[in-house]
Design brief:
The complex is a heterodimer of chains A (about 575) and B (about 625). Chain A is of the alpha/beta class. Chain A has two domains: about 25-45 and about 360-580, no CATH class; about 65-260 and about 290-350, Zn peptidases (Aminopeptidase). Chain A has 20 helices and 15 strands. Chain A has an eight-stranded mixed beta sheet, sandwiched between helices. Chain A has a three-stranded antiparallel beta sheet with strand order 1-13-12. A two-stranded antiparallel sheet of chain A has the order 7-11. The radius of gyration of chain A is 28 Å and the shape is elongated. Chain A starts with a helix and ends with a helix. By secondary structure, chain B is α+β, with helices and mostly antiparallel strands. Among the domains of chain B are: about 70-285, no CATH class; about 415-555, Immunoglobulin-like (Sandwich); about 565-620, no CATH class. In chain B, strand 1 and strand 2 (about 45-50) form a beta hairpin. The longest helix of chain B is centred in the last third of the chain and has 25 residues, at about 565-585. Chain B is elongated, with a radius of gyration of 35 Å. Classes of the chains: A alpha/beta (about 575), B alpha+beta (about 625). The interface between A and B is large, with 50 and 64 residues. Chain B: One of its GO terms (cellular component) is GPI-anchor transamidase complex.
Chain lengths: ~575, ~625
């Protein structure tokens, strides 16, 4: 303790604390830099880890897969009939009834879930003799995949697989096959109904494999695996590892986060960085951008992945793709406990490389500290004497914050009922330029109040990020970075000569950090799925169809903070400050 | 072609020989059915005991086969009034298992029911459960007993003794039945019948207590079958029990083992003084097998892809060397019991009044024959008595397996599922579907562990069909019994008597909270979830029938079990920090910075040296 006391004494003697407090904005900027560097060093050798199977029971690829030889004939047989559906323009009802009869032929209990809003879903349960009927594994096959292509190969493969599974006595969990109309709302509606109102159920769903094989070719090139859940949820890393391991074991290349085929084999710092950043992007916009099917299971403790067959040329045949599902089913079937051994929060750098939450969380924590620091700066570095937290300004700012929050909430709800991105953008342009056009000081905004508003604006942002960063790191990280320009905004004080450059700078920073502008720009730049104003419609759809919170986090988490900061740039009326008093003296 | 030839040969055989040796008359109907009080009887063939065994075989749709083994045996009569210490009493067990009787007498059990069940009974296809469901349990182990005792505590003590002893005899975890798993059914398990049966009380001041417990999803395996076989006088060595083999039995689609013991007295009114009583025990084993799967597994244990020539393609759809739309499962089948059970029946039972009897319930398009040595013989009623001491087998075949003997319709379908998500609450939803045109009156018996805290206030009924939209819960439920749970002491017990209107589907749903367990209460596989026992539905009208829903798996919030280690480390660190600071505060003097600097200045070696120098200099007078 002696050492610490000496240090403490030195700090006091040298007066470091006030000096440090004066430099808070610089400290915060430095922290932001550190945070980015911490993310950037993750893909460096020695920073990440190789994936491994944590749950010993899984034993992926340990059993020989027999889905081959004459099973291929059967898959082709089913496919020829499914192709007939396309030729005859069969309606969803006809399709479901026909496939239902095929499933019943090999002893599947089937039922059709009727939903007028989200279309009907056919599902069947293979009650396994050795199981206790309390757990289930799902094979889901949307009739149309995320790209709205007819899932010909997937449907044939799914039926063929289930028929093949029905001959095996090894199953300890019920097997459920689901044919939903699309991988988005209709699959989600079925999953929701399964947990609320369906009469035919097969126990708790442990894992779900979504099959996307939208070609009638016998061959494929490589496999894309999608794993992002909604609201920052991810499937247990064990399931993803099992899927990747088995796919590679069957001789297929695995592409994650939509990497094109020619870059799959790239290894090195930049390819890893790219995969990681693409993962952060996909996770941020999960549910908003194109949905693959695994997202629909998110939120019910169901671990889900989507296997997508890519390409129609290649030396991999459809039964190999089927053997991947077989292998995953065999592995999950071995589980005695639900998935819990491995990580639920991770970033993937390459199919076999990952980092766990402990590696990337500190950088998000630092980002939230950045905002807290700016808040502290606005509290202590004012020309109005020593900071008193509990005063009239604080109360006023709190009230302003509450009003802002309420109006943001109102806006978010209003937009759900009447989505009009043009109007939204217009409103925000207005809000951004209003401070610029207010030439006269507003009497309500006294100078100390503008500082206090900033305190609450940054503090609120920091709180939002802190509470979000564990459950949804990518979104918190994205929000933290995108709203950084708002920390550069300066207060416009009438004491200084009306400085046009400050006002213009402020307007620029406010534009950059406006949640709606930022999301619009980012979605158009980094995601080819989201064009122009699509992102706003998709945000609303994601909430309506999939219960994805991103829209509300942007509206209620980010927008109020931005509004407060924008408010603080309004020209404020002058009051005598401590400095003025000193000068007068 | 080959099959047709076979059939015609068999038919010829039947016609020529079969009729000639058709079933002998059942040896003695009178003695066989009313064996009470009979100790044994000496016949020309030797000493015979009150023991019977039957095997009923019944094809079910979609190539399934139900095989039911029934064994019945009675104990030696005894006088309840006699003390075992009397000079002229002795214990003698003939066909009645020695493992059971002393246990029953020690624990005053009047009725004992033990069930080992596993698998999925497809009631939509297969109709009613064997014995109308009264001989099968929920998935896992189920035990209930009627025990005579002076008080509830006394009866529970005996119940615990019973459970522990049965646990040892049957190698099952029945000893895990404790106070929190035991229920006292009130409305279910036919209390009226109990009254009418006039269960004898050996001590008029005592009462009867019905206790029930089940261990959901307890694995059932060979180590449970072997003890059951050992209870039989034939010990699984001869008669129909020689068919039973763990490998095949537990490879089936659905299987059930049941033991029922009842106390019967010759004259219920006078047993106290001179009436003699005896125990009647029934043991049942029921198996459903999917015949094509079993035959395929006999051929090749691994269900590998079939060769091109073994594929059955739908000829109405395109098929060639590359594609094959599989045709529905074959309806032609031929097999013998030894294919299904891996063994022949070795001989008959020589202990009893009647021979072992095998009956096959089939329609005309089925053929069932008994195979003795190399000959096949049939009978008119498709029942066969095993009279000789040699190997038997049953051979069956059919060209249209989906036509099976009349299947009784199930009066009601009931299924139950968990609803909701999250670790802190959930819901249970039970669907009753009455497909018949008669209202069904039933009793509902549900026992839930204490860590599911149910809210009866959330109990809601919903009718799916338009015609019954106006039904309310009170229209359906005529009486209810609810025993709330006590943490770690008692489970929730919920019983209803309800009537489901004809052609109506209703659902009953309620919500519950999940409690947190103590750290040590989690089982080793805490992340597996917690098994919830089946819901038991007993139909009172129009036909007596009992069914159970599937068991459920409830997830509770489970701690990360490495956490205590982290907690110990963190809390130790915090304790250390607090202690250090406090110690400093208490032992050190608080001074201002100036004082501190003064003190420091006077303490430095330089200062001391200077002082020393000054002192020396002053001593020297310089």
């Amino acid at each position: 303790m002696g050492l610490l006391t000496n240090l403490h004494r030195k700090v006091i003697v040298l007066g470091l604390v006030p000096k440090f407090l004066k430099q808070l904005p610089q400290v915060a900027k430095l922290l932001m830099l550190i945070s980015l560097i911490m993310i950037a060093i993750i893909p460096m050798d020695g920073q990440y880890r190789r994936t491994y199977i944590s749950e010993n029971a899984l034993m992926p690829s340990q059993a020989y897969s027999y889905f081959r030889e004459s099973e291929w004939n059967i898959v082709r047989g089913y496919r020829s009939q499914i192709e007939e559906f396309v030729k005859n323009n069969a309606t969803a009802k006809e399709r479901n009834l026909e496939v239902e009869s095929w499933l019943q032929d090999f002893g599947i209990k089937t039922s059709i879930y009727h939903n007028e809003e989200h279309q009907d879903t056919l599902y069947g349960i293979l009650h396994t003799p050795r199981g206790d009927g309390t757990e289930a594994i799902v094979l889901s096959i949307p009739w149309y995949n995320g790209d709205d292509e007819f899932n010909v190969g997937g449907a044939a493969l799914g039926i063929g697989l289930l028929r093949y599974f029905s001959r095996w006595p090894v199953w300890s969990k019920n097997l459920i096959i689901v044919f939903s109309e699309n991988p988005r709302d209709s699959l989600r509606a079925w999953v929701e109904a399964y947990h609320t109102s369906l009469d035919l159920t097969g126990g708790s769903i442990e894992a779900a494999i979504n099959i996307d094989y939208a070609s009638d070719s016998d061959f494929l090139d490589y496999v894309e695996i999608y794993y992002d859940g909604l609201n920052g949820e991810l499937p247990n890393l064990d399931l993803l590892n099992v899927a990747i391991k088995i796919t590679q074991h069957e001789g297929m290349k695995v592409s994650l986060n939509g990497q094109p085929k020619d870059t799959i084999d790239d290894d090195g710092y930049f390819p890893r960085l790219k995969t990681m950043l693409l993962g952060i992007r996909d996770s941020t916009f999960a549910g908003v951008k194109r949905v693959h099917g695994n997202e629909a299971f998110s939120g019910w403790r169901i671990q889900a992945v989507t296997l997508k067959a890519c390409g129609t040329e290649g030396n991999i045949d459809i039964t190999s793709f089927g053997r991947v599902s077989e292998g995953i089913f065999r592995a999950v079937n071995n589980l005695l406990e639900k998935f819990h051994q491995s990580f639920f929060f991770y970033l993937i750098l390459a199919p076999r490389n990952f980092v766990s939450i402990s590696s990337y969380l500190p950088s998000a924590v630092i980002i939230s500290v950045v905002y807290a620091t700016f808040s502290l700066d606005a509290l202590v570095n004012t020309p109005f004497g020593p900071p008193m937290f509990f005063n009239k300004e604080s109360l006023l700012s709190l009230m302003i914050l509450s009003i802002t929050l309420a109006s943001s909430y109102f806006l978010s709800q209003l937009f759900i009922y009447a989505p009009n991105p043009g109007l939204l953008i217009g409103l925000n342009i207005l809000l951004t330029i209003v401070p610029y056009f207010i030439r006269k000081p507003v009497s309500f905004f006294k100078e100390p109040l503008t500082y206090r508003i900033r305190v609450f604006g940054y503090l609120y942002m920091s709180l939002v990020l802190t509470s979000l960063l564990v459950i949804n790191f990518p979104l918190a990280f994205m929000m933290g970075i995108l709203s950084f320009p708002m920390t550069l905004v300066q207060t416009q004080q009438s004491r200084y000569i009306a400085n046009m450059s400050i006002a213009i700078k402020n307007m620029l920073y406010l534009t950059l950090s406006n949640p709606f502008f930022a999301i619009l720009i980012v979605s158009n730049v980094i995601d080819s799925d989201l064009k122009y104003l699509d992102v706003f419609y998709d945000l609303i759809l994601a909430w309506n169809d999939l219960s994805c919170w991103t829209w509300f986090l942007i509206c209620i988490g980010w927008f109020p903070a931005w509004l407060l900061i924008a408010m603080s740039t309004i020209k404020s009326s002058q009051v005598t400050s401590v400095e003025d008093e000193k000068k007068q003296q | 072609m080959l099959c047709n030839t076979m059939v015609s040969i068999v038919h010829t055989l039947l016609f020529l020989i079969g009729l000639a040796i058709a079933t002998e008359e059942p040896l003695n109907n009178a003695e066989g059915t009313n064996v009470s009080g009979q100790k044994f009887r000496i016949m020309e063939t030797g000493i015979q005991y009150p023991y019977e065994e039957h095997l009923n075989i019944r094809p079910l749709p979609h190539n399934h086969l139900l095989t039911s083994f029934e064994f019945e045996m009675n104990s030696e009569p005894f006088f309840p009034g006699d003390s075992s210490l009397d000079f002229d009493t002795y214990d003698h067990y003939t066909v009645f298992p020695k493992a059971i009787e002393p246990l029953l007498r020690r624990t005053d059990v009047k009725q004992l029911h033990l069930r080992f069940t596993r698998g999925y009974w497809d009631s939509e296809e297969w109709g009613r459960l064997p014995h109308d469901g009264f001989k099968s349990g929920g998935s896992g182990v189920e035990l209930w007993a009627l025990i005579e005792g002076s008080s509830k505590e006394d009866a529970f003590k005996k119940w615990k003794t019973l459970a522990n002893s049965l646990s040892g005899s049957f190698c099952a975890s029945i000893n895990f039945i404790d106070v929190s798993k035991t229920n006292y059914p009130v409305l279910s398990f036919n209390p009226q019948d109990r009254e009418e049966q006039g269960i004898p009380l050996f001590n008029p001041t005592n009462n009867l207590y019905l206790m029930h417990a089940s261990l959901a999803n307890e694995p059932i395996c060979t180590e449970n079958l072997t003890p059951l076989l050992k209870l039989l006088p034939s010990k699984g060595k001869s008669g129909i029990s020689s068919l039973l083999d763990g490998h095949k039995l537990f490879d089936s689609t659905w299987h059930n083992m049941a033991i029922d013991v009842k106390t019967k007295c010759v004259d219920n009114n006078h047993y106290l003084n001179n009436g003699e009583c005896f125990f009647e025990m029934e043991a049942n084993v029921d198996v459903v097998s999917h015949i094509p799967s079993v035959l395929a597994r006999n051929k090749n244990p691994i269900p590998k892809p079939l060769g091109g020539e073994d594929l059955y393609c739908d000829l109405s759809k395109p098929y060639d060397g590359y594609q094959c739309f599989p045709s529905p499962e074959t309806t032609e089948i031929q097999f013998s019991l030894s294919d299904l059970f891996g063994k022949n029946i070795s001989g008959s039972n020589d202990l009893s009044f009647t021979h072992s009897r095998i009956c096959v319930s089939i329609t005309d398009n089925w053929l069932a024959t008994i195979k003795m040595d190399e000959g096949l013989f049939g009978t008119d009623d498709n029942c066969f008595d095993l009279t000789e001491n040699r190997n038997y087998d049953i051979y069956m075949e059919s060209g249209s397996t989906n036509e099976v003997a009349q299947i009784d319709d199930v009066p009601i379908y009931v299924s139950r599922s968990l609803t909701g998500y999250g670790q802190d609450h959930g819901g249970l939803r039970t669907v009753f579907s009455n497909p018949t045109s008669k209202p069904v009156r039933l009793s509902y018996y549900e026992s839930l562990p204490w860590f599911m805290r149910i809210y009866l206030s959330t109990l809601e009924m919903e009718a799916t069909s338009e015609a019954h939209k106006n039904l309310t819960l009170n229209d359906i439920v005529e009486s209810r019994y609810y025993m709330p749970s006590i943490d770690r002491k008692r489970s929730t017990q919920l019983e209803f008597i309800m009537t489901i209107p004809a052609n109506c589907t209703i659902s009953l749903a309620y919500e519950f909270d999940k409690a947190l367990l103590h750290f040590t209460e989690y089982p080793p596989d805490a992340n597996h979830g917690f098994e919830i026992e089946s819901l038991i539905i007993t139909i009172l009208e129009p036909v007596p029938y009992q069914l159970r829903t599937a068991t459920l798996l409830v997830y509770l919030s489970t701690p990360d079990f490495s956490m205590p280690y982290n907690v110990i480390i963190i809390s130790s660190t915090i304790m250390g920090l607090i202690f250090g600071t406090l110690y400093n505060l208490i032992t050190k003097r608080m001074v201002t910075m100036e004082e501190a600097e003064n003190i420091l200045a006077t303490r430095s070696i330089k200062y001391k040296l200077m002082m020393l120098r000054q002192r020396i200099l002053s001593k020297l007078g310089l």
